[in-house]
Amino acid sequence: MKVVQIDDIPLKRGLEHRGGTYHSRELLEGEPGTLGNFKFSISDISTDFASPRHRHNFEQYRFMLEGECDFGRDGVLKAGMLGYFPEGVHYGPQVNKTPISTAVVQFGGASGSGYLLPREVKAGMVELEKFGEFKDGIFHRRDDVPGKRNMDAYQAIWEHHYQRPMEYPKGRYDAPVFMDGANFQWAAVKGAKGVSEKLFGVFTERRTGARILKLETGASYPIAGRSIFLVLSGTGEVDGKPLRRRTTVFLDQGERASVRAVETTEVLHYELPDLAEMAAGYTGAVMQAAE
Questions:
Q1: What is the pTM for the complete model shown?
Q2: Which CATH number fits domain 185-271: 2.60.120.10, 3.30.70.660, 2.40.10.10, 3.40.50.720?
């Protein structure tokens, strides 16, 4: 188990390949080169941030803590809403109507395409700037350099990192899924007195999911599985370690812990996909490239 207090993590500039003002606190990360690699962060993004309509070969959830973000034809995310962005599915363009704060987890999905950490993306960006420029989320290659002239910034970095073309997974869903927590009712969690949940959903054959847990004062709840927990409000403890607003807890596969609420506490729960069976016998391009 890993417990991270947000005040212990510095605010850093990021996503320079997209353009605009983007800062985040990178609270958790996985293991580079593995199918289950991931990053969890709380990001603060200004209205000048630029992101064109695009897609990824990884998955992500975005829970809106503050502000309002417009994704064009896909809809608007407001505070208290969750967006699930499946791999291979186009979304955007993104326009922030106000400065926003969002709890984002990005992770390798069911296709086995893996995920590049921010420092890997940054390194690729620095190298590619020798051959062109990044502007408004697009990499523009110089005319005297072989290769496609204009390409999505992340795709260009990914292809440079692995030295091969990116093959996008076929989308399991037609579009991103936007969910409004205000429209969900609290449902009692069976066998856990004083604990209720708003279950947003469970997605793909690898069973990634998201929900909000609410523990009434004095209630306890056992947690397990490869998951990320973010305290949205309230105070408590997890196996004797303090929980307060914006505390993050990570459990890996096979780990268990117990959460107890000192006062009524709400916790965002991201369940990462179970890729253990896939990883055990996987011989695909991502793992080969990492060796």
A1: 0.87
A2: 2.60.120.10
